[in-house]
Amino acid sequence: MRALLPLSLAAALALPLLPQQEPPGLPEEESVIKVDVDVVNILCSVRDKSGRLIPNLTKDDFEIYEDGKPQEIRYFARESDLPLTIGLLVDVSKSQETLIGIEKQAAARFFADVLRKKDLAFLISFGADAELLQDLTGSPEALRRGLEELRLNAGAGGIHPGPVPTARPRGTILYDAVYLAAEDRLRREVGRKAIVVITDGVDVGSRIDRSGAIEAAQKSDAIVYSIYYADPNYQYMANGFGDLKKMSEETGGRVLRVTRKAPLETIFKDIQEEMRSQYSIGYIPANPAKDGSFRKIEIRLKEKGLKAQARKGYYASRQS
Asked: Do 7 and 132 contact (CB within 8 A), yes or no?
């Protein structure tokens, strides 16, 4: 059953728009172990000059800096087999109408290939409104059924405040959808988290702006992978590539463009490979203040020619 997501900013900030459900029951002995809240965990991928993923580095290959100051790496692991929580956000606005069929098939194969034991995923479509088509599940079949519910959503959306609430037209609420996925579905999850967005990057009508969507993803420790997919008939208005690039790079992800040489299925395979080739780096900040400020993070590789891909920083949570 579809769940329509109300998207007024007041509701987004005050109410749980997507009811938080516990994932499929885990035995008590598999309960998550919570570590020191002061630990900052960073997921990163490393590539060489040719763009190839480098999966076999060690702790000694990395240096990490917070606000320009070196930090001591306390924890290090290769994340190739640790559980993932993935949110797939699919643009179903008018400019994506002819692409929806391809998206259904490719996304179904992606879920069938990427989900392993203990992995979870959910599915949201967005156009004039956002709809939860499938809540957190580890079942590729349930996600496939959710994908079958993808439909064009180009009508009026939202409620215009006033004495007599009325619908008002909206366009494509991309940033609202990212905010909701991060804040309402992923913030309370643990482990590795990713948001995969299929869109041409055009946003018309979101109440959350790009910076707000980025902040929500950063606070949820979620990496955003953007898939830029534009109908040639709408190329003249599909100018959102730069916004997608900014949103992805700030959170440690990438933007990938669908072309004839790189079809959607190939893009999904690239994302899957990257998510299975990550490193987890943990450190306790030398600056202990929890003042809500944004701290910049830089990861450097000792070997020349290697480049780390990771989020640009984090918010130091305030004292309770």
From this structure: no
